[in-house]
Amino acid sequence: MLTPNEKYAIAKVIIGVIIMALAMIDITFYDFDTRKHEMSYGDRRGVYQGPVNEDGKPEGKGFLDLKNEAGVKYSYEGEFVDGHFEGKGRIEWIYDGDLKYEVGTYKNDEIIPLKDDEITDLFWYADGKYLYRCIECTGVVEREHAYTKEFITLNIMSDIENNDDALTVNIYDPDFKVETGDYVRIMGIVERCYTELNDAGEEKTVPIIAAYEYDVISYEEAISPELFEKDPDKKYLRPVWYTK
Q: CB of 41 within 8 A of CB of 66?
């Protein structure tokens, strides 16, 4: 007949064994989900860390760390579906010695830009949810623009009717030709912001956009973009840091 103390001691041992077994199961599962796989995406090669599906392709939340043939680092952390960027994620890369970011929702390896009503508050908040997000919008070029050997800087009013909601846009293509008064469509990343007073005396945010898709369009297309489709054969020029 066991004494109460002996029963208590045996129970502690049994509980301890169960806890150790559960811990081992959890560790085994964790190791499986975070094991490393050598991967290649285009000219980039590196290591993926995270879960994979039955075909050995990234599936779920993971981290992909790559380098291109020139040794430039590029990484993606976020959601994958069948080996593709799919869902919420974040990309980091090095461009001209600086660390760059892109944050948002991806579909089949491409980021889905915010546009129309999704960027209404962009011109009132200097940072927060819009920093490093990708946006797509149209506008009219005003003021003088500056050219350098690497890029052209444009000042654009995205609210065409009210001549408001200013953007500063850097286009990494010094051969891109545009004139004051032209209408343009741009897509790019909100890299930083500053504030200034608009014509009504209101303090508003001026986002600085690094554009990697851009085109001169008609007035009709600028005010009614939903009636037009982008030319699928058009080859948009992109800076080297975004080339896939």
A: yes
Residue 207 exposed, middle or buried by CB count within 10 Å (0-12, 13-18, 19+):
buried
235 alpha carbon, distance to own chain's centre: 21
Which fold would CATH assign to domain 114-237?
OB fold (Dihydrolipoamide Acetyltransferase, E2P) (2.40.50)
Domain extent listing, the chain: 1-33, 36-111, 114-237
Token representation of residue 215 = 């085109």
Pairing of β 203-217 and β 183-197: antiparallel
- Phi and psi for 163 in degrees, rounded to 5? 50, 55
Tell me the pairing of strands 134-147 and 114-115.
parallel
Those residues whose C-beta lies under 8 Å from the C-beta of residue 150, and which sit 6 or more positions away, are 172, 174
Which residues make beta-bridge pairs with 80? 60, 85
Q: pLDDT averaged over consecutive 10-residue blocks of the chain (244 residues)?
A: 53 44 33 66 85 88 88 89 92 82 90 87 77 91 78 89 88 87 92 81 86 88 70 45 36
Task: Determine the Cα–Cα distance for residues 67 and 85; give it in Å rounded to an integer.
Answer: 17
